[in-house]
Amino acid sequence: MLRCGLVIYFVLLAMAADPCITGIEAVKRRDLAAAEAALGECTKLQPANLEAQLMLCGVYQLQGNAAALLAASLDGVNRFPEEKRFYLTAGTYAGRQGQFSQAAKVLDRALAKWPDEVKLRPLAASAFLGLGMEALDKGDNTGAEKSLRRAVQLAPDDAEALLNLGRAQHNLHRSTEALASFDRLLKLNPQMPLARFHRGLTLHTLGEADAAVEELSREIDASGYAPAYLVRALAFIAKGDWAAAMPDAETAAQKLPDDAKAHYTRARCLLRLGREKDAEPALRRAIELNPGDPAPLNALVRLLLQSGRQDEAAPLARKAADLAKKERTAAKGEIRFQ
Amino acid sequence: MRILLLLAALAPVTFVDKAREAGLTLTVINGDPKEKKFLIESIGGGITVIDYNNDGWMDLYIPNGSTIAAYRAGRNTARGALYRNNGNGTFSDVTAAAALTHRGWGKGALAFDFDNDGYQDLYICNFGRNVLYRNKGNGTFEDVTARSATGDPRWSSSAAAADYDNDGDLDLFVANYLDYDLHNLPTEGKFCLYQGIPVACGPRGLKGAGDTLYRNNGDGTFTDVSKQAGVDDAAGYYGLGSAWGDYDNDGDPDLFVANDSTPNYLYRNNGDGTFADVAIAAGVAFGEEGHEQACMGVEFEDIDNDGLLDLFVTNFSEDYNTLYRNIGKGVFRDDSHAAGLVTDSWRDLSWGVGFFDFNNDGLKDIFVANGHIYPQVDRHPIRITYKQANKLYLNTGGVKLQRAPGLDAAKSSRGAAFADFNNDGRMDIAVVEMDESPSLLMNQTAGDSHWLMVKLEGAKNRFGIGARITVKAGGVTQTREVKAGGSYAGANDPRQHFGLGAATQAEEITVQWPGGKRTRETSVKADRVVTIRESE
C-alpha cells in the first residue's frame, strides 16, 4: 500500500515537474501565460518535440504576440525543416511585420520543398512584392527588379507587382522590358492607376514621342496625375511642339511647386517661345530646388551671356562645369585597370 | 522655290553600294570584331577624299586600325590604303606605289595642301604618333613628320586645316581624345556599364588628352601654338570631330570641336592669333536641354541658304543628333526638335555627317553614318543594335527634315566622306565600316536637275580653303565654304557642289577669298566643273 502510494506520488511529482505536460494542461485551461512559460521550457528541454513547438506558436497566436510568434515559427523552421506549417506562419508574420527579406527567404525555401502547395505562392509573391517596393523606395533598382521579377513569376496576374517591376526596369534604363511589363499589366487591368503614366514615361524615354503623348493624355484624363503633365510637356518638346508643351509645363510647375524638373521644363519652353524675362526666375527656381544639376545652370549661363551679363554668368559657369566634372570623373576604385 | 521642291518630290534619292565592283576591298581592322572590350577598339576611324594626282577624279585614303595584341607586340600588320580613282568606276590600291608605308593604329585622315604646291598632302591621325606625308606631285609621298614637327604622339581623332592667321598657308588643328595606355587598360567599374550591360570603359572616368594647333611657318615646318592661341583644351575634354568655319562672317576661320561626353568648344578667332571659347554663349556647348552630349562628327555649313554657317553634331544613342541653326549675332539655336531629329535619331549612334544637295534641288540635305560602339547590345533586348542603317534627311525648305527611304543596309559605320566620284554631278558617299570593307554609295538619283561643281585655285592657298562661294541660280542663293576637314575624322571633295534644280545656269558666282579679295563670274552654264582662279 505504502509502495503503491509512493509510486503515485512520484508519478504525480514527475507529471507536475514536466513542463511539456504542464504546458499542455495550461493550454487546455486557457491559461496562456502559464502555457507560454511551460511550453517555452519544454521546447528547450525537448528540442525535438514538434507538438510543443506547434503549441507554443498557437499560444503566441492566441496572445496576439506577433513578434514572439514569428520568432517561434522561425525557430520551428530551423528545428523542423520538414514541417510546412512553420514556414507558412513565419512567412506570413514576417511579411505582416514588414520583414520582407525574412519572409521571402523562408517562403522561397518552402517553395523549393513544396512547389505545389497552393498557399505558398501568393504568400511568397506578396513577400517579394514587399521586398521589391522597399528596394524601389531606397533607390536600389537592381534589387527591386530582381525581387519584383520573382513576385511576377509567382503571381503573374499581380498588377501591383507588374507596375512596380516596370518602374524598376525603367529606372535601370531597361526600357524595352519596362514597356513589356506595362503592356502585360494593361492587358490584365486597363484601369490600373498610374499604369498609363509609367508606360507613357517609358515611351518618352524610348524616343516614341507621339505614343507617349497619347498614353500620357489618357492618364491625365483619367487621374490628372501631376507628373503626367510634366512628362507630356517633355514629349511635346521632343516633337518640337513648344507651344503645346507650354501649358503642360505651366500646369506641372503649379502642381509640383517643389519639383526642379517641372520648373526647368517650364523655363525651357519660355526660352524657346521668346519669353526670356519669365524664363530667368523659372531657371533660378529650378536651380534652387536642385543645385546639383548642371543643366539649368548651363541654361541660365547661356541666357545671361546672351543678354550681356558676363559678370553674373562667369561664377555660375564655373559652378556648372565643376558639377559636370564630378559626374564624369572616376573616384578611386570606380574604374579598374588590367 | 516651289518648282525645285516638286522636283525633289518626284525624284527619290537613290544610292547603290558599288564598293565591291569598284575594288574598295580594304578590311578596316579595329581590335576584336566581336567583343570590343576596350574603347580603342570601338572608336573607329574616318576616311578622306583626296585628289592626290590632280586628275580631277577623286581618290580615297582610308586609315586602318590594329589589334591590341599586335600593337602591344609592336608588329602592326594592318595598313591604311590609298585608292586611286581610275575614272571608270573602279579604284586601284596604290598605297605601296605612293610610298605610304606607315603602319599605326589609324583613326582619321586629312587631305590638305600644307606647302601650297597645288597637291594635297596627307595627315594621318593615329593612336600614337601622327604622320604627315608630303605629296611630291609625282604620285608618291614622303614622310615629313619629323621635319614638320607635327607628330602629335597622343590618341588623335581628327584634324582640320585652315589659314587662321591669314598668312596664306594652312595651319593644322588636331583634336585628341584620351590619355590611354594600351598596357594598362580599364576593365571594369562604374563607368563600364551601359544599361546594366558590361561594356568597354570610358570615356567618362578616364583622363582626356589636350588638343593641338600647329601654326604653319611657311617653310615646311610647324609650331605648336595651342596654348598661346587658347585652344589647347586645358580642361581635358574628349575631342573627336573638328571643323573650321567662319560662323560670324568676320572673314577669319573659327573652330568647332565636337567633344565626347563633355561640352563642345566653339573657338571664335580673335584675329590676333588667339581664340576665345564662346560655345556656351553661342549655344553650342550643350544641347538645348543643357546637358553635355557625346559628340562625334561635325558639319559646319549653311543648311538653310541664309549665308550663315550652321552646325550639325552627331551624337550617342538615347540622345539626338543636334542641328544648331545659326540665327545671327553669334548665336545658334538647337533646332533638332522641330527638325524631327530628336525622335528620329534617338536610337542612332552617329558619326560621319555632311550637308550636300543629293537631289540637286538647290537645298542641302543631310547624310548621317550610324553604328553603335558596343557589339554587346545585340545580346540584350533594348531596341538598339550594333549595326545600324545610315540616314538621309531631305531638306524641303522648311524647318522639318524629311527622312528619305532606301538606306536600309545595317552596318556599324563610322566616318563618311563626300565627293562626286564619277563626276556625274551627283554627290556620292564613301563610308568606313567597322571590321569590314568600306561602302561606296554611288548616287543614282534619277531626274534632270542641274548642278555646278566649283573648283577654286587660290593664289597662295591653292585650294582656296576658307573661301566662301555664293551661287545665285533660279532665284535661289546658296553658299558653301571651302574646307579641309570635317564630317568624322575625314575630308570631302575639295570642289564645291551646288544643285541648281531647273536652272540651266548660275546667274552669278561670287567667291570671297580668304584675305579679302573677291571674284565674280556671271552667266555660268550648269552641269560642269567650273574653275575659278584668284587674281594675284
Fraction of helical residues of chain B: under 10%
Assembly annotation: heterodimer
What's the helix-strand series of chain A?
HHHHHHHHHHHHHHHHHHHE
Give me the count of strands of chain B: 40
Q: Percent helix among the residues of chain A?
A: over 70%
What is the residue-averaged pLDDT of chain B? 96
Low-confidence stretches of chain A: none
**Estimated structural class of chain B:** mainly beta
Measured by DSSP, the beta-strand proportion of chain A falls in under 5%
Walk me through what this model shows.
The complex is a heterodimer of chains A (338) and B (536). Chain A is mainly α and 338 residues long. The termini of chain A are far apart. The longest helix of chain A has 19 residues, at 120-138. In chain A, α6 (84-96) packs antiparallel against α7 (100-113). Chain A is elongated. Helix content of chain A is 79%, strand content 1%. Chain A has helices spanning 2-17, 19-28, 32-45, 50-63, 66-79, 84-96, 100-113, 120-138, 141-154, 159-171, 175-188, 195-205, 209-223, 226-238, 242-255, 260-272, 276-289, 294-306, 310-328; one strand at residues 335-337. Chain B is mainly β. Helix content of chain B is 8%, strand content 38%. Chain B has 9 helices and 40 strands. Chain B has a 4-stranded antiparallel beta sheet. A 4-stranded antiparallel beta sheet of chain B has the order 2-3-4-5, with no helix packed on it. Chain B is globular. The two termini of chain B are 38 Å apart. Chains A and B meet through α11, α16, α18, α19 and β1 of A and β12 and α8 of B.
